[in-house]
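Thread: "does anyone have the structure for this chain?"

Original post by V.I.:
We have the sequence but no experimental structure in hand. Need at least a predicted one for the grant figures.
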Amino acid sequence: MAEKDINNPDKKQGFFISVSISQDKIDQVRQASDIVEVVSTYVTLQRRGKNYFGLCPFHHEKTASFSVNPELQIFHCFGCGAGGNVFTFIMRMDRLTFPESVRRLAKAAGILLPEENEDLAGLQEKEALFYVNRMAAEFFHKMLLESGEAEGARNYLQQRGITKEEWQEYSIGYAPNRWNGLLEHAKELGVQAELLLRAGLVIQNERGDYYDRFRGRVAFAIHNLTGQVVAFGCRRLIEDSSPKYINSPETDIYQKRLVLYGLHWGRQAMRDQNAAVILEGYTDLISMRRVGVLNVVASAGTSLTEEHSRLLRRYTSNAFLLYDGDAAGASASLRGADVLLANGLDVRIGTLPSGQDPDEFARSQGRSGVEAVLAASVQLQDFKLRRLRDQGLLATPGLKATAVRDLLATVARMSDPLQKSFYVRDLAEKLQLEEPVLWQEVRKHERTQRTALRKEASEPELSAEERYFQTRRGAAELALLDVVLKHPDLASTLTRMISFTEFSFPEIRELFQRIEMEVVDGAAIDPARYIACIRTPHIATSLSQSFERQAHYPNPQKFAFDCIKIIRMTRIDERIEEIRQLLKEKNQATPELLQEYQERIQERQRIHRSIAE
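Reply from O.Q.:
Generated one for you, tokens below.
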């Protein structure tokens, strides 16, 4: 069967599908990317029967309900319902678009793909944002290397021990101290200011004029897990009243709660050492890596979130927090530690000498000094108790009761019941309290937290795709695809009854076009091949759930006919409603419109009778 390119965007029904990779290349990448091997880089899998099972990476669970089917090349979680193929797995895990997931897997498999087209008019919005951020990083880096006005930035970096090689390695640059330095550079490349605005690189004032967000600062590029630049953190060079750091605002490709600085550099070392060292600043991380401590990430001034914890849990279950050795640093350690602990990581706190930050400490003491601090780190519980004693907050029964309730609030948030039990027992021994009394307080906190979660819970905002599949027409299109993939023997009958042009959702229309072509060519329809190439997460999840649960249709042909009837009748109903609205307007009630109205009513009746028969 001849493959077609699926390069053109389709904006019908509000959907935007843009894939700059030919279908034969997508098939080649799929065939080279075994889903068991790919998932195993994120999840520990064990074979059970024909499938592999592990703990789901998309929700907290104690019993492995996450299944990978090597025969169909799909995954499915029986706990949270997540599912799909190798492409949608990578999309969900690393928050990528479909083309990005294909390129990631192609690179891993050593498959060469055509060079990306950097014509912004033809790029999907997210890809355009990636492009302009990369463009800005290259511009800032060139300014750092060549601009006379960057002398102060070069001096600052040299004082921090950051070498020219590291400027390149970590995408460090200089934002020129001009209102339009980046704007003018972008203009030369044909990049519109509106795109820079969406990327958070410029600001628009009340008069509608644009100006650079970052000016006269050292620029640290922030990368996502695939190594793409998604944002910047920019440090001032002079001591004035301006903020020490200015960071990019959140955009479609950058959400602070989902990004940790340096994770794409350090994740393999975290796997190898089964530990993550969490720092605060950009220079902290660079200095640590320079002395050979590679399993590091930085929060970069952002509070640690549950999403950060889940990111780290992919690579390790152990976290060391290493912040500045002062009161503010200790407070930051405690806030971050509570979140990590509540999400299943074992947390230890490393304390640096007072007045030193990790950057200075690594440069003065080297790897051996850092490793000594990590070896001397203490469990979160012990760190908190020591700090409470130092502050005199355990001196009286009243103060002690308040402090213990705060400690137990953290324990109550833990997801692992065994870990929770050990913490309660340890706390009871160290404070010489009755364990049942502590458990009563823990249960109170748990009830309070459940109540708060119920109040905060709301229906998540659905994507355009999800809303479409909740309609009768969308549900019928998806169900018809499910039927034909489970019963390929019906493909010939069904393609004679309905044309691919009658489907509204772009990807389902494409899939049925391919099915039609295979029927004409007399080729066998391989359901696994179709399922493994689906790029819309909702379709992939729905089909993987259906196939893994082995859902069957008692009378698949009749069910398929009913789906076709719904698809056609809902389309006609939409047009009938449009005509009714037009007929309400006197200047639109033409004889032609009245005739079409009658014809549509008659067509609806014919469809109902013909398919019913």
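V.I.: this helps a lot. The two ends are 34 Å apart (CA to CA).
O.Q.: and The chain has five domains: 12-109, 120-254, 258-374, 392-454, 464-612.
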